[in-house]
Amino acid sequence: MRLAEIFERVVGTGAPVRFRAYDGSTAGDPDSDTTMVVRTPVALNYLAQSPGAMGLTRAYVSGHIDVEGDMYTALDRMADLAFNDGPRLSPAEMARIARGIGWVKFANRVAPPPQEMRRGKLSWLGTRHAKSRDAEVIHHHYDVSNAFYELVLGESMTYTCAVFGSEETSLERAQFDKHDLVARKLGLEEGMRLLDVGCGWGGMVMHAAREYGVKALGVTLSKEQAEWASKHIAQEGLSDLAEVRHMDYRDLPDGIYDRVSSIGLTEHIGKKNLSGYFDGLYAKLKPGGRLLNHCITRPRNDLPAMKPGGVINRYVFPDGELEGPGEIQMRMNDAGFEVRHQENLREHYALTLRQWAANLDRNWDEAVREVGEGTARVWRLYMNGCILGFERDVVQLHQILGVKLDGTDAHMPLRPSFA
Q1: N or C: where does the chain have the smaller number of CB atoms within 10 Å of the terminal CB?
Q2: 291 - beta bridge partners?
Q3: What CATH number did the domain enclosing 388 receive?
């Protein structure tokens, strides 16, 4: 049996891509403009151990398979495999494939690439979403390299969904407009105090201070993010108004804020902790204060919040959990917030990811020098796969605006001033 044919059988027949193996054999669609290249027998070991998306990811990240042509196009054509567990081979089929390449080669266990977060590594840090475990998870994803993130995210250094006026809008403009949309939903005014939880590199904090004269505090579990943000706050001359601290939002001292923004943090909270999360933010707001929660969501509340053994959870967001927008809104309601506005920005995140993926491709050699080829490959695969996820409504992005009533007064205009 030819190696390319074996590979095609393991990942599924009928995929409209071409396969080429190191022994010179080919399979699949000969006219496809995208080719999956099997470079070494280790690719087959990975697929034998984990048929489907996990095996493909391990083989790609470690360089044992490659993609010739556009990554997004390749994933689009193999979307059923990318979003599901892949084909399940019968014992007879497995035995037939093993005979084709030799039992020793087929059965040999190969360690996952080092970029994969093994579940055992986290278990000794405590239960899911314990403070020490959350700190390690954030370190795994966000402390990759500030220089690498600058290559991918661009000048805005903002790692959350942007808001596009059109498909031609630049990434920097779209990120500015996202921060300004949040500011307008919150009704920021000069002299207010803003708390931004999970502030990343401080984009919202600096925007609020620079554009609205707001005294803004951001907190992040990433030491590298906090250092980068503090440096740039000083460079912009905003130190009197803006501050970013390296700390867990749960350790914030008591204080009352006019407004709270949470942009891209709820994904790290966990379903069982949502009530406490929103209770805590409610307590930090003055009467009449507003919370804007911006996060990735699942399209339905009855879908599972996480897939512990999935590619995203192992390689990108360990312990990440996504809830349906109704679940998040319910928890905000139960914490005491009156929900005043909700918006789905799903298509905007697909556009954002396209810009990030293009930045990575354009700066590929420099990115590889900065973080290594394996990590760069993780990001190329992850971002292009997520474009498909948002385009195909596998995931969504919701902004939900809540108000802490002042008695019965929401201090909201009769009609909102934001679009």
Answers
A1: C
A2: 260, 402
A3: 3.40.50.150
Instruction: For residue 232, give both structure tokens.
Output: 């740039």
Question: How many angstroms from the chain centroid is the CA of residue 269?
Answer: 14
Same domain, 98 and 144: no
Amino acid letter for position 48: A
Distances, alpha carbon 121 to alpha carbons 57, 140, 199, 314, in Å: 20, 11, 26, 11
For residues 211-227, one letter each, b for 16 or more C-beta atoms within 10 angstroms of the residue's C-beta and e for the rest, the string is ebebbbbbbbbbebbbe
pLDDT at residue number 254: 74
Q: Provide the 3-class DSSP secondary structure of residue 377.
A: helix
Closest CA to 402 of 334, 306, 312: 334
Length of the chain: 419
Instruction: Give me the residues paired with residue 20 across strands.
Output: 26, 37
Provide the number of structural domains found in the chain: 2
Q: Is 161 among the catalytic positions?
A: no
Whether residue 333 is contained in a domain is answered as yes
Could you say which of 161, 199, 295, 386 is catalytic? 386
Give the integer Cα–Cα distance in Å for 150 and 144. 11
Are residues 162 and 97 part of one domain? no
400: nearest Cα among 199, 257, 266: 266
Q: What is the extent of the structural domain holding 33?
A: 3-107
- pLDDT tens track for 253-309: 878 999 999 999 999 898 999 999 999 999 999 999 999 999 999 999 887 766 666
Phi and psi based region of residue 307 (left: phi greater than 0; alpha: psi -120 to 50; beta: remaining) = beta
The Cα 325–Cα 332 span in angstroms is 11
CA-to-CA distance for 277 and 266, rounded, in angstroms? Answer: 9
| Residue whose entry in the numeric block shows the structure tokens 């803003």 | 194
The DSSP bridge pattern shows strands 215-220 and 242-246 to be parallel
**Blockwise average pLDDT, block size 10, the chain, 419 residues:** 68 76 87 91 83 87 95 86 51 64 63 78 59 64 81 97 97 98 98 97 98 98 94 98 95 91 94 95 97 96 74 79 95 98 98 98 97 94 95 97 97 88
Neighbour count for residue 104 (Cβ, 10 Å): 8
| pLDDT the model gives residue 14 | 67
Using only C-alpha atoms, the chain has a radius of gyration, in whole angstroms, of: 23
